[in-house]
Amino acid sequence: MLFKQCTALKFLIFILGFSIIAAQSNPNQELGVVECLCRRIAPLTQPPFGVRCRATLNCPCDYIGDCPGPAEQYMYRCPNCGPRSHVACSGVHRGTCQQVHPGIASVQYQD
Asked: d(Cα 106, Cα 37) in Å, to the nearest integer?
């Protein structure tokens, strides 16, 4: 009887752990998506941390988007743009700054 209880407990722990992992791997659609010049769409999975405006960088994944101010854009790490994706592959959030984060000038996202 004790063996059956332990097995059931291990099974419940496994299911709980799997559910947590599945929930974490599901990107939050409210954060939006980004598009690279390589035509891949990458969902944003991290909330913003800190506020900073940056000028456009020359990166193969750069995507020109709307953001008020001269050459200002949302910065992010694009994970889907080939072998150079581990380098700071930067781009912009689709949509205007005010549409994405009302009241916040610009946001830099973690990779």
From this structure: 21
Radius of gyration of the chain (CA): 19
By the 8 A CB rule, do 89 and 40 touch? no
Q: Among 87, 85, 86, 61, which residue's Cα sits nearest to residue 73?
A: 61
The pLDDT assigned to 73 comes to 43
The separation between the first and the last C-alpha atoms of the chain, rounded to the nearest angstrom, is 48
Looking at mean pLDDT, say which of 8-22, 27-41, 73-87 comes out highest. Answer: 27-41
> For residue 92, is it within any domain?
yes
- Please state, in angstroms and rounded to a whole number, the distance separating the CA atoms of residues 76 and 106: 11
Domain membership flag for residue 25? no
Answer for the pair 106, 51: CB distance below 8 angstroms, yes or no: yes
- Is the pLDDT at 109 greater than 50? The verdict is no
Q: Into how many domains does the chain fold?
A: 1
